[in-house]
Write a structure and sequence with these properties.
Layout: E1 2-11, E2 14-20, H1 22-27, E3 33-37, E4 45-53, E5 58-64, H2 68-74, E6 81-82, E7 84-89, E8 100-106, H3 110-122, E9 126-133, H4 142-148, E10 151-156, E11 163-164, H5 167-176, E12 183-187, H6 190-203, E13 207-210, E14 226-229, E15 232-235, E16 242-244, H7 250-256, H8 261-275, H9 279-282
Parallel strand pairs: 8-9, 8-12, 9-10, 10-11, 12-13
Antiparallel strand pairs: 1-2, 1-6, 2-5, 3-4, 3-7, 4-5, 13-16, 14-15
């Protein structure tokens, strides 16, 4: 059993959890993830490790409450426990000194991007980070990303904070101003990663993306997380989750992400019917 040491609400439907998980904290490297179960009868969901504290033996997970399991998780309080945290899983990010690195995060994707950004700076790269969100209230980890970067650019779709526009607009602007980059690391919604990959390919910047397909066991046995990269089938859980964005078939991946929409809606409707009276608490306005 793994106890919750902290539960903080970062924004609408976005929850930060710090769990007691000493073995995971000891061996985790940037880019790796865990698979958790909220209860003994619950489904398994993958979550990237946003941070660790090896001295305390804890890991930090950031969750967006959008489906049944994440809503159940959002209702948990400090002191509660969950039965399973399996990991660390996946291949860690290859951290090396390459020169100038562009780290691009969208929405909840900033959570897995943060440890990679931090590691890239610590090894001696010059890091420029771009964070994008639909609006200011959906922006997360701004302070942490600013500390982990030499330069930080904020974009919002509605212009409520930072530059109005998309992260691709910010990338193009930086390049037009004469900046050059040896690597782009991009994490966020699939559609955002697709267009960042298309733009960086055009600009001649290598691009690393972290994929989030459907995943069940996290060990390569179920095949649910298969993606096409460079016309080859890869498993995100064991071959990734990071791949060359210029080679990823994003359209296929996004299509596969909709395969279980009907089942997810049915599960969500059942959950709402059983615990709708507690739903507001799970999306709450204060830290638990």
């Amino acid at each position: 059993m793994h106890q919750i040491l902290e539960h903080t609400i970062l924004g609408p439907n976005v929850h930060l959890f710090r769990f007691d998980a000493p073995d995971v904290a000891q061996y985790r490297k940037p880019g790796q993830f865990v698979i958790i179960r909220v209860n003994d009868l619950g489904e398994r969901i993958p979550l990237t490790i946003a941070d660790v504290n090896r001295t305390e033996g804890s890991i930090t997970l950031i969750v967006q409450a959008v489906g049944k399991t994440t809503l159940e998780m959002a209702q948990l309080k400090v002191g509660d426990t969950i039965p399973d945290i399996c990991g660390p899983l996946g291949e860690p990010t290859h951290i090396e000194k390459v020169g100038k690195v562009l780290c691009v995060g969208g929405g909840i994707g900033t959570a897995p991007l943060y440890p990679v950004t931090k590691a890239m700076k610590e090894i001696g790269n010059h890091v420029t980070s771009i964070l994008g969100a639909r609006s200011k209230d959906l922006l997360i980890l701004e302070h942490q990303m600013k500390k982990a970067s030499h330069n930080l650019v904020i974009t919002t779709d509605d212009g409520s904070y930072g530059l109005k526009g998309l992260v691709t607009d910010a990338i193009q602007k930086l390049v037009d101003e004469g900046n050059s980059y040896n690597l782009c690391v991009c994490m966020g919604p699939p559609i955002m990663m697709k267009f960042v990959s298309l733009l960086t390919k055009k600009l001649g910047i290598p691009c690393l993306v972290s994929l989030n397909p459907i995943m069940v066991d996290g060990t390569g046995m179920c095949g649910g997380c298969r993606v096409t990269v460079g016309n080859e089938t890869k498993f995100a859980c064991v071959d990734g989750p990071e791949f060359d964005g210029h080679l990823v078939d994003f359209d296929e991946m996004m299509s596969r992400l909709t395969m279980y929409n009907k089942h997810e809606k049915k599960s969500m409707d059942h959950f709402m019917g059983q615990s709708g009276c507690r739903l507001e608490d799970s999306l709450g306005r204060e830290s638990k």
